[in-house]
Each structure stands twice: as C-alpha cells, then as structure tokens.
Design brief:
511 residues; mainly alpha; three-stranded antiparallel β-sheet; two-stranded antiparallel sheet; 20 helices; 7 strands
Length: 511
C-alpha cells in the first residue's frame, strides 16, 4: 500500500521515509540486511545536521550507482559494516529511531506508527527482532485495547438484538393469544361458526329425569346440563324442525354424553332406556321401614338414610318434632339415579308440607295434628270409615283427662314397629315417653306415617261418645267401639276367641 503525503520542507522525517514506502518491497529473506544499511545511510545526514537546521533540506541524498554496489571482492566498510558489528549498529539505529519518534508531533507520530504497522504487517517478526525494533503489530497495547473495546461493543449489540427479538416474539404471541380469545368469545356469544350440536351416538353413561309437567325446553335444558346434548337451543331447534308434537314419558332415562339431538331424542323415546326408580310408602309404616324401602330400590346404604334423618331439621321438619317420624308423607316417589339420601328425604318432607297446606294445617298446629293422625293411622284397620271414630275416641278421652292407653304407642316406644302387642311390664314403663298407658296426653310425637285419610280424621273426627275400641278380626280389620268399660270387656273377649282360632289354624297375627 502506498500513502501520499503533501510536500513539507520542514518534515525531514517524511522525506526520509517516503522512498522506503514507495519503493518495491524486497524479499523477506533480504529485507533485514537491506533495511539496516539503508536506514544507516539515510539517518547519518539527519543526525549530523542536528547542529545545523535546514541542512537536510539543502543536501539531498545521492543514490548509489552501479559502480558503488558492493561485490564479493570489493568490500566497502563505509556502506556495509562488518557482520560482527551489526548487532551494535542495530541497537544504535533502534535508539535513534525511538529518539526521532519522541521528537515528532502527535500527528506525525501517529502517521509514523501507521507506517510502522503497515510495514510490520508485511514483514516477518524476525526482521524487527534483528534490528532491535519493537514488534508493533504484535505488542501494541493501544491496538489490543481497541480490539477488545470493539469486541465488547459487538457483544453488547448482539445481546441487545437477542433481547429485542425475544421481547418481540413474546409480544406477538400475547397478541395472537388475546386475539384468538376475543374471536372465540365473539363466536361463542353470537354462535358464529360454532356448531350447536354434537355428532354421533355419544359416549359414557348418564341419567336424565323427565319430570311431570316438563316442556320441551325444560327437557332440553336438562339434557344440556347433563352434557347429553351440546346446547339446549340446538335440541329445541331439532324438535321444532322434526318433532313439533313430541311427547315424553315421565321417568329417568339412561343416556350418553355428547349425543346428537337426533340420537338423544331417539333414546328418550325408547322404553328400554327408561329406568324406573319408584318407591311406594304405604300409610302407617314407620320412618325406619321407609328407609329400608328407599335403600332397596336405589342401592343407597341404609345407614346413609339414618344419618340424613338425624339432621331432620335441615330437611325442613319443625323443631318441636322429636324426629323425622310422621313428617315423611306416605306416597309413591319417582327418584332420580343421582339422588342422595338427603335428596330423597327432603322430597318426602316437602310432600308432607304440601299435604298439610291442602288440609289447611298451619305450621303451629302441625305437631298436634300429625301426632294424632299417626296414632289413628296405626290403630285403624282397613275400613276407612273407622278413622274418624277412632279419632273421636282419643279426643273424648283427652277431654275427660283419661290416658289414651294405646298399645301402638307402647310398642313404638320399645322399638317394635311391626306389632301392637305389648306386655304388662311394657305398659307400666313411664320412662317410655311414647307410652300412653303410663303417661297422660298424646305421645311426644308421631308414631308412624299418616296419610290423607288419617290427617282428615284428626281434623274432623266423627260424632260419638265412644271411649273404647278394639279390633275383633285382625285379617279384616273389623273394629268394635264401646262407651263403657263393660262393653269394652265383651269386645275384648271377641278378640281373644278370634286369636285362639287363628293360632289353631297356624296363624301368627296374634303373636
């Protein structure tokens, strides 16, 4: 590389270095020797002229002619020092070069370094070491710092680029996610591009109950809530298009999840899919017997019903009742497969409140009416006409401050709800709060499940002066009433005769 500098008569160093930059580069193996000799020739006038300023400008250097070139036979010690003296001369030249650099202005010194670096890049390191010159290209601290600074800047730029790229990708991802969520929300809200129905026959198993009075919309909502169909709207649209006069039977149906509207409709019309969970509670049985019936049909453990009944007030039974007994209305119940014991018992309590309302019984009178109705229900037979008469007997005895002396109350207090037969010791036990032989007034609560007829009899007893009654045929339920104790003893003998004949025939009703 050739560098051009403007002419300056006061810059002797530029004149002395210009020929070396412009001339043809010597071979690497010859450069060490040539450079040392030429530097010696060019530095001699400059150093000699240090006592006379301007001498270097007025005495230009004379190039050597061919006659002055050294040969093997003509050795000129002035031009070519002896080899043994070269190291000392090289040291002197190096010192001279360093002193000349110290005299240069900063700009010229920078240019000199540039020229040295340029030359160093072209020369092998051995050439500088032979001359005793510093190896600038290898040992320059400024250059190393510059390179390290440049590398640091590049690393910082790369780091900034990487961080910026990551942030940009995160922002793009967040925007994409938010945009999708907004679009999906709009689609779900307005039904744009979203199917209202599942396809196919479905999967899994689920029970859905069609209740009495349910409309097509009610059934559609129940199906959607159980995830049988995707949306209630889709099922209603299917019914309107294909079965506008559809009729559904009340009951529980075994269906599948994710059914098409057509598949769900077909399954609801198939009697094979109908699951009948129906329990009938007859009048006069006890709450424990009702629990057994519910458990047998639903498969819910009997203990679950007992635990649910223990918290009877949470089921809606008034606080003045000692238990749930008497507040379970005897009727036929269609249950759901998903019903719990508490769900079922709550239905029976709600049904009793419905019956009381129908009969005009207030909440404050519920305990008295149901206690009397349950007593009538347990003592009466099959003849419905006897219910008001039995109620009248108990009311007459209460008015006369007579003990009711009901064997059914004693038996219930002992835990034997399947019979009305008692012993003398049991009838004398006043600790049995249900015992109306030893304790005055009504028992502390109902002793069974009264139905509509018994509730009506408790509200409207028959007219009469009867103070006693006794069944004389346990198979038919025939009952004899009496106003005096003497008449009652005769009726009691009739019962004894019937029981003797019944036992003789192998019967067990009197046991």
């Amino acid at each position: 590389m050739v560098e051009e500098y403007p002419e300056d008569n006061n810059m002797a160093s530029q004149q002395s270095y210009r020929p070396r930059r412009a001339r043809q580069e010597p071979a690497a193996e010859q450069f060490s020797e040539s450079l040392a000799d030429q530097t010696a020739l060019k530095r001699a006038p400059r150093r000699a002229a240090s006592d006379a300023p301007g001498a270097a400008d007025t005495q230009p250097e004379q190039p050597l002619n061919n006659a002055q070139q050294p040969t093997a036979s003509a050795y000129n010690p002035l031009l070519f020092p002896e080899p043994a003296k070269l190291p000392a001369r090289n040291a002197q030249l190096a010192q001279s070069l360093r002193e000349s650099q110290d005299d240069l202005p900063p700009t010229e010194y920078s240019q000199l370094n540039m020229r040295q670096n340029s030359t160093a890049e072209r020369l092998p390191q051995s050439s500088f070491s032979e001359l005793g010159l510093p190896v600038i290209a290898q040992n320059s601290t400024a250059e190393n710092n510059l390179q390290q600074g440049s590398s640091t800047i590049k690393n910082k730029k790369r780091f900034r680029i990487v961080v910026s790229t990551i942030i940009a990708l995160l922002l793009i991802g967040a925007l994409a996610f938010t945009g999708k969520a907004i679009i999906d929300g709009v689609r779900d809200r307005f039904g744009i591009g979203v199917s209202l129905d599942y396809e196919g026959a479905g999967e899994g198993e689920v029970f859905v109950t069609v209740k009495s009075g349910d409309t097509g919309s009610d059934i559609a909502e129940a199906l959607a809530e159980a995830n049988v169909v995707k949306t209630a709207e889709g099922f209603v649209k299917y019914l309107l298009r294909n079965h506008p006069e559809a009729v559904f039977d009340v009951g529980s149906y075994k269906l599948k999840h994710k059914m098409s509207p057509e598949a769900a409709y077909t399954a609801l019309q198939d009697p094979k899919n109908k699951e009948d969970l129906v329990v009938t509670l007859p009048e006069g049985i006890s709450a424990d017997q009702a629990f057994e019936r519910f458990s047998a049909v639903t498969g819910i453990p009997l203990e679950d019903f007992k635990q649910a009944a223990a918290n009877y007030q949470a089921l809606g039974v008034p606080t003045d009742f000692p238990s749930i007994e008497g507040f379970i209305f005897p009727a036929t119940y269609e249950l759901n497969p998903d019903d719990t014991a508490s769900d079922i018992l709550r239905k029976t309590v709600d049904r009793m409140w419905q019956a009381l309302q129908e009969h005009g019984v207030t909440a404050s009178d519920a305990h008295k009416i149901l206690t009397m109705a349950a007593l009538v229900q347990r003592e009466a037979g099959a003849d419905k006409n006897d219910f008001p008469k039995i109620a009248r007997v108990f009311y007459n005895r209460l008015e006369k401050d007579m003990h009711l002396e009901s064997d059914a109350t004693v038996a219930y207090g002992t835990g034997r709800t399947h019979t009305v037969w008692t012993t003398a010791a049991e009838r004398a036990d006043a600790s049995n709060k249900y015992n109306t032989y030893a304790n005055p007034g009504l028992p502390i609560g109902p002793i069974g499940l009264p139905g509509d007829i018994a509730i009506k009899a408790a509200l409207k007893p028959a007219n009469g002066n009867w103070l006693y009654f006794v069944p004389i045929n346990l198979e038919t339920g025939e009952t004899a009433f009496a106003e005096t104790f003497t008449e009652h003893e005769k009726n009691t003998d009739l019962l004894a005769d019937w029981c003797n004949a019944h036992r003789a025939a192998g019967g067990t009703r009197c046991d």
